[in-house]
UniProtKB/TrEMBL annotation:
This is Tripartite ATP-independent transporter solute receptor, DctP family. The keyword Membrane does not apply. N-acetyl-beta-neuraminate binds at E90, R150, R170, N210. It is found in: Cell envelope. It comes from the Bacteria. GO terms for cellular component: outer membrane-bounded periplasmic space. Keywords: Receptor, Signal, Transport. It comes from Cetobacterium ceti.
């Protein structure tokens, strides 16, 4: 009887261990610069909810918005080291590690999001970059989403490129944005994002450039009566995972992560597409005059910057520009 109890107890313990192994919960972290009212955060919430649902509760994704874990570069470095599981990154931002990646943020090189997807998935430069990110940085691109196209607001109408001459244009401290301003004849004025509203309100700067979603979120339309559809830089958003994280997950959960990252990217893209379609009417209803300048002259003005990029990256840079701009 005592022996039978011992065997039964061991069987029960084995069963609990097996159940525990099958139902292990993986608590993972995702950091982002975006705040918790942004489309990026909404998409990340959607990602987290679907990961929990499709993994039967085995994956619990905790979100850290508002740059709680550092800026975008810091979080990419954390991913590389395996101390952070997921983050967002723009393809062009990888130029901090691989200078040739800057081609994806050169003004007017990328036409639209479909073009961006082809440029990152179907080209020699795109495939090379993905391989370097995997092998050199120890992280993987799970999916790609649209994250808005940058436009220009101002305190005067921009009907043509000449209207930007001498304009003090607030830009982030990023080469592509600085060069956009400089090459169209404006005076680039780097400034912290938190200071922009007051600077526009007091005319310390004459304009700024951002995606439509940011223009609304920061209420720049309250202090800038003009919006020019300059379409100068398209922002994408990559869903990134640490290779360390994926190696810890069993195969079935790796599959869940990959599938749900694709699904989240589709939702992410739709959020921006739907919002941009509505925002032009919103701005007009709030007294903003929207202009559509001829972008041919804007595009042509960027050649000196393209030449700098090609000189810096040699044959690789020249081939990258040629390959991406020739895509249908």
């Amino acid at each position: 009887m005592k022996g039978m109890f011992k065997v039964a107890g061991m069987t029960m313990l084995f069963g609990m261990m097996a159940f525990g192994a099958n139902e292990k919960v993986y608590t993972l972290k995702m950091g982002m610069v975006a705040n918790n009212s942004s489309n990026e955060y909404k998409a990340a919430e959607y990602f987290a909810e679907n990961l929990a649902k499709e993994s039967n509760g085995q994956i619990k994704l905790e979100l850290y918005p508002n740059a709680q874990l550092g800026d975008d570069r810091t979080m990419l470095e954390q991913l590389s080291a395996g101390v952070l599981d997921f983050t967002f990154a723009e393809t062009g931002r990888f130029n901090i590690f691989f200078p040739e990646a800057q081609v994806y943020s050169l003004p007017y090189v990328i036409r639209d999001f479909d073009h961006m997807k082809k440029a990152t998935n179907d080209t020699k430069i795109g495939k090379s970059l993905r391989n370097k990110i995997d092998k050199n940085l120890n992280m993987t691109i799970l999916s790609q989403a649209y994250n808005g196209t940058r436009q220009t607001t101002s305190n005067k109408a921009i009907e043509k490129m000449a209207d930007m001459k001498g304009m003090k244009l607030r830009v982030p401290k990023a080469e592509a944005n600085l060069e956009y301003a400089k090459n169209v004849g404006a005076s680039p004025t780097p400034m912290a994002f938190s200071e922009v509203y007051l600077a526009l309100q007091t005319n310390a700067v004459d304009g700024q450039e951002n995606p439509l979603s940011a223009i609304r979120a920061q209420k720049f339309y309250e202090v800038q009566p003009y919006l020019a559809m300059t379409n100068h830089i398209l922002n994408d958003q990559l869903y990134m995972v640490s290779n360390e994280t994926m190696s810890r997950l069993p195969k079935n959960l790796q599959k869940v992560v990959k599938e749900q990252a694709e699904k989240a990217a589709e939702y992410h893209t739709q959020l921006f597409v739907d919002e941009e379609a509505q925002l032009l009417e919103f701005f007009k209803e709030n007294g903003v005059t929207v202009t559509n300048p001829n972008l041919d002259e804007f595009r042509k003005s960027m050649k000196p910057f393209y030449d700098v990029y090609i000189k810096k990256n040699g044959k690789t840079g020249k081939e990258a520009v040629a390959e991406i701009t020739s895509l249908n």
